[in-house]
Specification:
The protein has about 850 residues and is an alpha+beta fold. The protein is built from 20 helices and 34 strands. The radius of gyration is 46 Å and the shape is elongated. It comes from Streptomyces rectiviolaceus.
Length: about 850
């Protein structure tokens, strides 16, 4: 027989699910059926979700009351959807899949349930039988045998202690005197903290002072009696106002072994340990979280907040995890809140702006407008009432779970106890999953840093190092990255490189960062938040939007609203700056950014800090290498002739190759210079060895040759004095082979040469008829003996003749056991008849390069001079 009914229709929007839960909860509480409210709300939530979210239709909810049961019907307008057959729970699929979970819950929780079809509706109904209880009672337990009732010591005494707004005792009843040995006049006006033995958690400041400020609190602590002994008590605190409106706290205390007198009973009888259901042992964790539980941390946390919200019929729920030192909490999951804005945000627990003071104990805030900032996460969200409970493992704070509602006065101490019961069941699983995730992150971080170090060590190019720094951070660590460099202590930071994971946004991001002042080059290690990019982006987007609406200055042709808004979105989240410090000097800053309203995880920031240290050293090494390369190349270029003079009637071509990466000058050298009118000196030589030491001797030889020749010394005298100068270098001296000559162009088109060949490969003469012959005699090399007796040879180059001078890097070119040699060089030269000096030098060089596949290992110099003869009219 139906004794009452209530009906409502809910639109197909996500918000309707919460509204339907409130409708059912209010209806059943109005009928006085609080014992079945939780089950009814959970089932209604699942069935309405199926209707408005999955089926996409309106949901009709009908509540029917009878004398011994309540029936709730949920109808949607999508009868074609497939409904699983009523089978055993094992064959109905996973409870976490999109469809069918509501029906599985009906099968598990309802006394009876079913599905009815009509041409336009599908109706799922369930019935919950009312428990037998005494009329008018709020909660009742079963009748127990006398031996199972709680024991008391004599008459049960309930101490009633009233605490004023400053924490001092203002009332102390007779039972308190009996329990603790103090007369009322002894303790009145004293702080309760003088008597309370609060079970502090090491390293924390949470105590009874905070507990006395809560609207309700229930739990255990100790009271020091007049004899100095601590009496364990179980207490229930209630925060009230007196007739004058002054707040105070009423504390009811009993001996801890008599806690049954005050302890709030659980909503349902807990199963005995080891008790079996029909198929398996009831696991409290699985009862709350569902089975199977998600195997990843994010999935577990998200399931937790969703179930907590449904359990307390809230509008939102959130879960924060504590850092290792328990000083901060990091937002990891939420529902009903702007999670993208809050995810990975951090709030302090103990002190500082925006602290989360009630994180370490259960707390109920009946109206957040009265205590703004009590739960920083909810600021600006419209939530009015909230209940929060800690997650603890072995007494250590590991997180905080909260449920909030948009209306005030929604929650009481009873909801806090229920939520704490659930938090206690999931705390260990959450901590285990968190530690597993942290271990995976650490292993991945080590692999990332090893790979980054290898890449950074593989280059000494500054620009490539900058590019590698950005490419390693985007998108692995951040959405975008900017690198600022500082040339020296007096220089301002310079924006050197910008990268975004979306290449189309790089130009807009670079333009935005170029318009704002760079971050301060602070050497303090660690990441610090930099708000300037986000503020500048939002201001630019606002100005662009106003111009597009005709409310500001006309928009320039190059600035489109889409580009500006996309740039604002790209840099609208958290931006952090990490200093690049190398050799105790700030050489730049690494800037990392997230898109709109996102925060960095602490593990990511720690990884970025490790990367910044390696990148800074690599960047500084690249800088030092570039500077030294520039110095080296400048010095090397100073050892080369400034340019080849134009010699009337003589073609001249030089090809020079220094062995070794980055070398422009080494042991081989050449020179061609005017001595006086009509006379020119030329030289080609080879210092023993390669590298900077050999290059130093080449500089000595080239400058000495020019100086001595222009002083009027002949070839032998020039080389003898050069030999003495080389020997004067002592341990730094190196022997030197040198071909030196003087050249006089003649009016008949020929050229007269005087040559001294001091241990150098002999020059070759190519005649017009293709014959090749040596053009000098060998003499001792320089830098070995003190007394040299050198002589010069005079000869004439006829018109069309070519004189080829090379260093031993040409003749000693090898391929395995083969060597080009003097004969091979002569063979190549015979093919150069009729060629210009430039063509001859090029053909010789090409032949040398083709002789072997490996890169040359020795310096090479080629000097070709050709007398073309007189041109006929």
């Amino acid at each position: 027989m139906i004794t009452a009914r209530a009906a409502a229709t809910f639109d197909p929007v996500g918000r309707s699910v919460a509204t339907a839960r409130s409708f059912v909860r209010d209806t059943l509480q109005g009928w006085g059926f609080t014992d079945i409210v939780d089950d009814a709300v959970v089932l209604t939530s699942e069935l309405v979700t199926n209707a408005v979210v999955h089926a996409g239709t309106a949901a009709d909810v009908l509540c029917l009351r009878s004398e011994d049961a309540v029936r709730i019907e949920v109808s949607d307008h999508y009868p074609e959807r497939e409904i699983p057959l009523q089978q055993s729970a094992a064959s109905m699929g996973s409870p976490d899949r999109e469809g069918g979970r509501g029906l599985q819950l009906c099968a598990a929780l309802a006394t009876r349930w079913g599905v009815d079809y009509s041409p336009t509706h599908k109706q799922v109904w369930f019935q919950l039988d009312l428990p037998d209880r005494s009329v008018g009672t709020r909660a009742a337990g079963p009748a127990l045998p006398a031996e199972l009732l709680p024991l008391t010591d004599g008459r049960v005494r309930v101490a009633v202690v009233q605490i004023d707004r400053v924490g001092a005792i203002s009332a102390w009843n007779e039972d308190a005197e009996e329990l603790f040995g103090y007369a009322a006049e002894q303790v009145t006006g004293k702080p309760l903290t003088d008597l309370a033995a609060w079970p502090h958690t090491p390293g924390t400041s949470t105590g009874i002072v905070e507990a006395l400020q809560l609207s309700r609190w229930e739990g255990s602590y100790g009271i020091r009696g007049s004899d100095g002994r601590v009496t364990p008590v179980y207490a229930s605190h209630l925060r009230v106002r007196d007739a004058d409106g002054e707040p105070s706290t009423v504390c009811l205390l009993v001996r801890d072994d008599e806690r049954a007198v005050l302890q709030t009973p659980l909503r349902g009888p807990a199963p005995e340990p080891g008790a079996l259901t029909e198929s398996h042992t009831a696991d409290p964790f699985e009862v709350f979280i569902g089975s199977p539980a998600p195997d990843d941390l994010d999935g577990l946390l998200q399931r937790t907040v969703e179930r907590a919200r449904d359990m307390l019929d809230g509008d939102a729920a959130f879960l924060l995890l504590a850092t290792d030192d328990e000083t901060e909490l990091e937002v990891r999951a939420s529902t009903g809140l702007p999670s993208a804005r809050q995810r990975f945000a951090r709030v302090p627990v103990e002190a500082g702006p925006g602290r989360y003071g009630s994180a370490r104990m259960p707390a109920v805030h009946e109206d957040l407008t009265v205590v703004p900032g009590a739960v920083p996460l909810l600021s600006g969200t419209g939530m009015r009432s909230v209940v929060t409970v800690p997650l603890k493992v072995e007494g250590r704070l590991t997180g905080s779970l909260g449920v909030a509602a948009e209306s005030p006065d929604r929650y009481s101490n009873e909801e806090a106890l229920r939520l704490q019961f659930a938090a206690d069941r999931i705390a260990l699983a959450v901590e285990s999953a968190r530690l597993g995730e942290l271990e995976r992150l650490r292993r991945g971080s080590l692999s990332f840093l090893v790979e980054a170090s290898d890449l950074l060590a593989g280059t000494l190019d500054r620009d490539q190092t900058l590019a590698l720094m950005a490419q390693m951070t985007v998108p692995t660590l951040a959405t975008w990255c900017a690198v600022y460099t500082i040339a020296d202590q007096s220089s301002e930071p310079y924006l050197s490189y910008v990268l975004h994971e979306d290449e189309e946004r790089i130009d807009g991001l670079k333009a935005l960062l170029s318009k704002i002042a760079p971050p301060d080059p602070v050497p303090t290690p660690g990441a610090r938040v930099w708000a300037a990019p986000s503020e500048a982006a939002h201001q630019a987007a606002l100005r662009t939007s106003m111009r597009s609406l005709g409310l500001g200055e006309p928009m320039s042709l190059g600035a489109g609203i889409g580009t500006t808004l996309s740039t604002a979105s790209a840099v609208g989240g958290e931006t952090v700056v990490l200093p690049l410090v190398a050799r105790n000097r700030v050489i730049g800053m690494l800037t990392l950014g997230k898109p709109s309203d996102e925060h960095f995880r602490q593990e990511i920031l720690e990884l970025a800090e490790d990367l910044s240290r390696r990148a800074a050293l690599a960047l500084d090494n690249a800088r030092l290498y570039s500077e030294r390369m520039a110095i080296s190349q400048s010095l090397q270029r100073s050892l080369l002739p400034p340019g080849l003079p134009q010699i009337p009637g003589v073609e001249v071509e030089v090809i020079y190759r220094a062995a070794g990466e980055g070398n422009e000058v080494s042991g081989d050298f050449y020179d061609l210079f005017p001595i006086r009118d009509g006379a020119y000196g030329f030289a080609i030589g080879d210092v023993c060895g390669t590298g900077p030491e050999a290059a130093a001797v080449t500089g000595l030889a080239r400058h000495a040759l020019r100086l001595l020749a222009r002083e009027g010394f002949g070839g032998p005298a020039v080389l003898e004095r050069l030999n003495a100068a080389i020997l004067d270098e002592g341990a730094r001296s190196r022997f030197l082979t040198l071909l030196y000559g003087e050249l006089w162009p003649q009016e008949d088109g020929s050229a007269v040469l005087k040559i001294v060949c001091a241990g150098h490969p002999l020059p070759l003469r190519l005649r017009q008829d293709g014959t090749v012959e040596p053009y000098a005699e060998p003499q001792p090399l320089l830098g070995v003996m003190d007394d040299l007796e050198l002589y010069e040879q005079t000869m004439t180059l006829d018109p069309g003749d070519v004189l080829l001078c090379v260093t031993d890097g040409v003749t000693e070119r090898r391929e395995g056991t083969r060597m080009l040699g003097d004969d091979g060089l002569a063979d190549v030269l015979t093919t150069c008849t009729g060629l210009t000096a430039g063509a001859v030098a090029a053909r010789i060089m090409r032949a040398v390069e083709r002789f072997a596949t490996d890169a040359p290992s020795d310096d090479m110099a080629i000097l070709a001079m050709r007398v073309p003869g007189l041109q006929k009219d």
